[in-house]
Every structure is written in C-alpha cells, then in structure tokens.
Design a protein that fits this description.
By secondary structure, the chain is mainly alpha-helical. The protein has 21 helices and no strands.
Length: 465
C-alpha cells in the first residue's frame, strides 16, 4: 500500500500496521532468507569442488537439485493444513529446525546417491514453509495492506543472493576449517542458523493479534475486528472456506500454472547462474576467486530488489492491475534466452539482471491474489496447492536444464525453454483477468477500510461453479 494511503488511515490502523511491519515482517523475512539460502546452497557448492569431488555430471547435478521438490511437493498441502490446525508458531518453528538438521548433514555427503537422498529429505523437511509464511502474514494483515507487507517479506529472496552469494563464497574460501573442504564448510555454515532461528521462532512468533503483548488493547481490537470483518465478507460473497473448494477451483489451478512459469525461470537462474559465471573465466581468460564469483552472482539481484520495491509500491498506489504481473512475465520470457547471445560477460550479466528484475517484480503482487477470494482452510490449501504446482518447476527446471545441456552441449535450448514457460504465465494471467474469473483491479469500495481490497467479479456466481 502506498505511504500516502497509510498516512490517511486512522491512527490506530497506522500504529498497528507499523508495529506488525517492524515486529513480524523482518523476522519472517529472515526465516525466508535462511530457507532460500539452504535450498540453493547446492548451486554455490557445485562449481566450487562438489561436482568434482562427487564426480557429478550436469544432468546428475540437475537431478539432485530438483529432487528436493519431490519431497517438498508431496507434503506441501498437508503441511499447510497442519499449520492451519496447530498454529504458525509451532509449525514454522518445527519446519525450520527440521530442515536445519537435514541441511547440516550435507557437510558429510560422500556420493551422488547420498546427495539425492539428502536433497529429497530437505524437501520433506521444508515442505509448507513458504506457503505457511505467506498465510501467516496474510492472517495478520488486512487485504488493503497485504501487497506492501508481502513485498517487504519477498525482498528477502533477492537479498538472499545479494548477501548470501558473497557469504557462501567466503565460507567456501575457509577451506580446511574443521578439516573440511570449503564447499562442505559452506553447507555447515548455512545450516546452523536455521536451527538457531527455528528455536527462537517458537518463542518469538504469535498465532493471533490477541496474543501479541507488543500491541496495545486498542490495536489488538482494531486488527482482530478488521480481519474478522474481512473474513466474514469473503465467506458471505463466495463461501470459499473449505479445503475441498481449493482443489476444485479453476482459478486456483490457473494461478498454479502461472506461478509455475515464474518458478521455472527463478530456479533455472538460481541453480545454474554460478555455473554460467564459471564459464566466464574461459571466455575472458581471467580467474575469479570464490568470493569474486559470489559477488558476480549477486549483481543481478540487487537491482531486482530495488525494482521489486518500486513495482509493488506502484501496484499498491494504482491498485493491482493485470499488467503488474503480465508485463514482467513477458520481459523475463524475452530476456533470459537473449542472455546467451549477449557477447560478453558484462552484457550477459546485464540481460540476466533484466530477467531477475522481471521475476521478482511479479511475485509479491502475484501472491496477493489467492487470499482475495479464499479464506480459512481453503486459503491454507489453496496457497499450498499453488506453491506445490509451481514448485514442480523447481524439480523440472534444474533437471531439464542440465539434461538438455548435456544433450545439446550448451545452454541455448534450455534458456529458450525457460522463456517459453514465462511467456505462458503472461498469457494465462491476461486470459484469467479477461474472463473475469479473477479481477486484480477492482476493490469493494463500500466496505470497511479493513476489507477495501476484497476482490469482486463480474459474475458473482463464478466462484460457485
């Protein structure tokens, strides 16, 4: 939401949203930062000794990277329903400690088979974290403020690479620490924070506003009433409260396929960008140390974080429109194949930067859509289902990219495949909006301020078909 709109809100609303933004968002974003770093650490390890020590081909590395998402997908929806039942504090803490323990075991992996097993178990352990975090923040923030809050949360993902890539590079340089190769010490160094922060989360997070002693009584009352009115309005308009509805909803499935295209592009970059940068050495005749490679890897993501902030701010100011999601998808679809024909490392990084900006500009705006027409168990199941289908791309993108690279001898065809899926996402977003199955533009202006952003459709019976 735009700052001017927040300023115009009642004082109790301003103070409440400000406290939520300061108290909860940075901590949940830190959890997301650690989450994304742990799942993508394999991408930093691969060109820095792991592939050589474990004798991995590109296809094997791609399979090991992607098998994470098989375990993740199998337990995604059940995990989010468990979060809805047991509460975010307990469940998010449990998830984080579990994946931290599994991530720690990567320190001692000895072969391809062990790597595959650990990546699968890491996916099982992490299942439900991301949709759970999205749902948790949605349950604390009325819809009209949700886009801005999710943008602040999502900043953690590009910043994971901005900060995490140099950090991973520095850890890898500590070759010999505790008698470990550098890439093994890196796995050790990024796993410990997950366990520590997971334990802290048990005591720090609260399940509902009435439990938050850092809110005044008036702030607790305003936030609880605002969220209750919004929930009641959504139930009255569309009755989207059961988990069964989420699986039957055409809108949920189309949103899932839209998300698939973005995640396909995101993980193709995350897992193979360090390897592409490794190829710059042969192209230029220069030799980069591990920290320099980490810094180069981080270059596209700092502009991506900046673009995400201003793009999401514009969406909040104007009201979210279809092109806030479709235009970035088209930009990513065009730019990512062009990166391989840029002609120089600098030009390649510049074009990849456009791709990263496109993906991250769309994602926080995209995630405001499901909870506009889903609530209760349907919201838990719907957000998890969208993330589950989308994360099929998390498995297929690295595996297909690696396998097609081995088959063709280059990254040209794999990157055109990435561009194709992102273009499909753009087309589906436009078709979905034009069919009035979901309208990200209009808001219910007659509702209370707490429910201003409830989605309306041209056909009020659409959601019940």
């Amino acid at each position: 939401m735009d700052q001017n709109q927040i300023t115009a809100a009642p004082p109790v609303a301003r103070s409440t949203i400000r406290k939520v933004s300061i108290r909860l968002v940075p901590f949940v974003a830190l959890m997301f930062f650690i989450n994304y770093l742990d799942r993508t650490a394999i991408g930093f390890a691969a060109p820095n000794g792991m592939n050589e020590d474990l004798a991995l081909s590109a296809a094997q590395f791609g399979f090991a990277s992607g098998v994470f998402f098989i375990g993740y997908i199998l337990l995604e929806v059940p995990s989010n329903l468990a979060l809805h039942k047991f509460g975010a504090r307990r469940w998010l803490s449990r998830i984080m400690v579990s994946w931290g323990i599994v991530a720690l075991l990567f320190t001692w992996v000895q072969n391809f088979e062990q790597l595959v097993v650990l990546r699968f178990l890491l996916g099982v352990a992490e299942a439900g974290f991301f949709p759970g975090a999205i749902l948790f923040l949605s349950l604390w923030v009325p819809a009209q403020y949700r886009g801005r809050i999710l943008m602040l949360f999502y900043l953690a993902q590009p910043l994971t690479t901005v900060i995490g890539a140099p950090l991973a590079g520095w850890l890898i340089q500590q070759h010999g620490a505790f008698g470990l190769e550098g890439w093994r010490f890196m796995f050790f160094g990024v796993a410990i924070p997950a366990i520590v922060v997971g334990v802290i989360a048990w005591f720090y997070l609260k399940d509902k506003p009435s439990d938050a002693k850092w809110l005044t009584r008036d702030e607790q009352t305003w936030l609880t009433d605002a969220l209750d009115r919004e929930k009641a309005a959504t139930q009255k308009k569309e009755t989207h409260v059961s988990a069964k509805y989420a699986f039957k909803s055409g809108r949920v499935w189309v949103l899932s396929f839209i998300y698939f295209g973005f995640i396909y592009g995101l993980y193709a970059l995350a897992f193979f960008l360090p390897t592409i940068i490794e190829g710059f050495q042969a192209q230029t005749g220069q030799t980069f140390d591990t920290l320099q490679k980490g810094l180069i890897t981080a270059i596209p993501y700092l502009p991506a974080a900046i673009v995400m902030y201003f793009w999401s701010r514009d969406a909040s100011k104007r009201g979210l429109k279809t092109w806030h999601i479709a235009v970035p998808a088209v930009a990513g679809a065009i730019s990512i194949p062009l990166a391989l024909f840029a002609g120089s490392p600098a030009a390649t990084i510049a074009v990849i930067t456009v791709t990263a900006c496109a993906i991250f500009a769309a994602l926080p705006n995209f995630w405001t859509l499901p909870t506009r027409f889903l609530t209760g168990a349907a919201a838990a199941a719907g957000v998890a289902l969208i993330n589950t289908i989308g994360n099929l791309a998390g498995f297929s993108a690295p595996y297909v990219t690696g396998a097609v690279h081995d088959w063709t001898g280059g990254y040209e065809v794999p990157m055109f495949i990435v561009g194709f899926f992102m273009l499909v996402s753009a087309v589906l977003m436009v078709l979905l909006a034009r069919s009035n199955r979901i309208n990200p533009v209009t808001v219910d202006e007659g509702a209370d301020a707490a429910a201003d952003a409830a989605v309306t459709t041209a056909d009020p019976k659409a959601g019940r078909r």
